């Protein structure tokens, strides 16, 4: 198992220390700044620590034993994740995440409680979220330094985190552009966007960082990164499938949200090339889509072959991930650690 | 003189290399990402390189001779500045800066040209600016590393840049909150905000970074930072005075903008405590304020003593800066470098 209680606790300890220090520093400036840091901490605390767990899993599978240092590197990826979702919510004008108010939402609510009219309160929420995301972002890089790594190793880890952010920004840009065009992008475009926006910082680079920290050679780091990249894409496609066809009881995800939002996914990109699209299109992206309309879209997506296509594509990327995991550059201990993970990702789709 | 052609050129050379590398890397991802980097470069190119010049001036005044390394540290502050103004424009929903489109504006215009309706085009512009600001922000810290400094020195410079961003975020938060309240904040609140939002990253920390890079001792770094902090506040107050009373021909700044925007400044904070406020208030912050209305506000600000108060306050902070510059911890070479600068800052107000 990649995500374990022990790994979570190591990373949480680092993040607790980090936020504690920041709040203490902020108290020298003023109570409102402390509140901002508390809000950021609360938002970060809601996460599953998925990315840090991957740093630790890769690190340990290569024989690494210094959990403390590895936990710092993991925490750095968690802060990057926090920065990206806080800013993503600003871009999407979302005030809710994980079923509760995010940073924008908390500050909008505070303003509303103080009697500020809604449009101004929302703008204030979004403004504070821009600031909060900035704080999380640069501190991701600062946390790498606080791990105590030095010299060449320090530089390599920074380059990996740099790559994570460089790719994420490119992916976010593509996603923003997709929403400008009335016609859905191609399947290739969606896969490219999902690779850049999510797979690189969520899978590929955390795995590589863990491997580099443990002293793995270049070929191994490369192979593990490729494994992560492909698995990450598979994961995203499965996520998109669950967002439409999943069991809400199981997944905790709404199966109306993506359809109402008009989210560009592999399912939609494929369906747009079929004759069923003329029936799907008027319903898709309707903010008031009801269960009946959603049911209709699902049936059409099945009919068009889009569901089957997406499932096959996810399988395809998972298989590619397998092939990279099988690379002779990777020790058996790494295969042992991540073998189950590939299955877990695919199982979610069933 | 602090800002010189030579210093500008050194810093520009570093920034050219930085953006060149980034664009080259981006071309491996796609043309739209290259365009984003080109836009960010263009926006950065419009700056006066004021903050980098201060890094270099401090560095050289302490006897530093490695202009190359110092230019990297200077460039780091310029990227931080770029990040802050790009995100500040997102928060203020500004599409213009320095008389032309900023990042938000460029992307809004591109979208409009493509036939996208204005509200969506504006949202797209602001969204891309969030991404662009993120890229500039983390790269400010990366540039410090590319300077080649190592060990303790590297860590100290990172701490200084960290402090610059930590303070700026706090200042921006205060500024955002000011706009929520109908009543203007106190003079002390404004000074506090201007110190955090601008003086720390524009004056205090660049000077300290230059001094640290040159090997200055702690007492000297402290004194120079205090000089910078106080001078920075004086500069901001003068800026606020010019924004209302300046000669547009001289300053290039509109003297209607701040009044129309309802910008919270020391002038306004003071005037709000006087009997003239009841006449100023209805005019202040009116987006359609005309030259006559502006003339009336100026007369009232003079009558209330607000102008005289602000001028005296700017002088007061400049004098405090002088006192710190006179500290025995600072070598005469530092005083020689910055003596004229204090006068320059104050001269602007006349």
Automatic annotation (TrEMBL), chains A, B:
The organism's place on the tree of life at top rank: Bacteria
Single GO biological process annotation from the record: isoprenoid biosynthetic process
Keywords annotated in UniProt: Magnesium, Metal-binding, Transferase
Cofactors (names): Mg(2+)
Gene Ontology MF term list: metal ion binding; prenyltransferase activity
Keyword Magnesium: yes
InterPro entries hit by this protein: Isoprenoid_synthase_dom_sf (IPR008949), Polyprenyl_synt (IPR000092), Polyprenyl_synt_CS (IPR033749)
Assigned protein family: Belongs to the FPP/GGPP synthase family.
Name of protein: Geranylgeranyl diphosphate synthase, type II
Organism of this sequence: Agreia pratensis
Species lineage: Bacteria, Bacillati, Actinomycetota, Actinomycetes, Micrococcales
């Amino acid at each position: 198992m990649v995500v374990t209680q022990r790994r979570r606790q190591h990373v949480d300890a680092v993040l607790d220390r980090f936020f504690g220090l920041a709040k203490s520093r902020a108290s020298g400036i003023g109570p409102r700044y402390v509140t901002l840091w508390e809000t950021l901490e609360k938002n970060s605390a809601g996460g599953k620590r998925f990315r840090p767990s991957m740093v630790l899993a890769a690190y340990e599978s290569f024989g690494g034993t210094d959990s403390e240092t590895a936990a710092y590197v993991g925490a750095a990826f968690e802060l990057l994740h926090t920065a990206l979702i806080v800013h993503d919510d600003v871009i999407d004008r979302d005030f809710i995440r994980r079923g509760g108010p995010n940073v924008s939402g908390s500050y909008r609510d505070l303003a509303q409680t103080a009697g500020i009219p809604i449009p101004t309160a929302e703008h204030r929420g979004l403004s504070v979220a821009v600031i909060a995301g900035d704080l999380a972002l640069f501190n991701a890089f600062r946390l790498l330094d606080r791990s105590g790594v030095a010299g060449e190793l320090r530089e390599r880890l920074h380059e990996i985190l740099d790559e994570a952010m460089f790719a994420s920004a490119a992916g976010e840009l593509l996603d923003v552009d997709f929403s400008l065009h009335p016609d859905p992008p191609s399947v290739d475009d969606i896969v490219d966007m999902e690779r850049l926006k999510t797979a690189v910082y969520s899978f590929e680079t955390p795995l590589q960082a863990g491997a580099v920290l443990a002293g793995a050679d270049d070929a191994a780091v490369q192979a593990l990164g490729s494994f992560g990249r492909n698995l990450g894409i598979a994961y995203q496609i499965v996520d998109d499938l669950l967002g439409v066809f999943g069991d809400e009881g199981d997944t905790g995800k709404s199966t109306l949200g993506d359809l109402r939002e008009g989210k560009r996914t592999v399912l939609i990109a494929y369906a747009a090339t079929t004759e069923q699209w003329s029936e799907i299109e008027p319903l898709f992206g309707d903010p008031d889509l009801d269960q009946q309309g959603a049911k209709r879209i699902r049936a059409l997506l099945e009919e068009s072959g889009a569901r089957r296509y997406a499932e096959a594509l996810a399988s395809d990327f998972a298989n590619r991930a397998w092939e990279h995991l099988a690379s002779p550059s990777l020790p058996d201990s790494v295969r042992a650690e991540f073998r189950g993970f590939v299955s877990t990702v695919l199982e979610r789709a069933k």
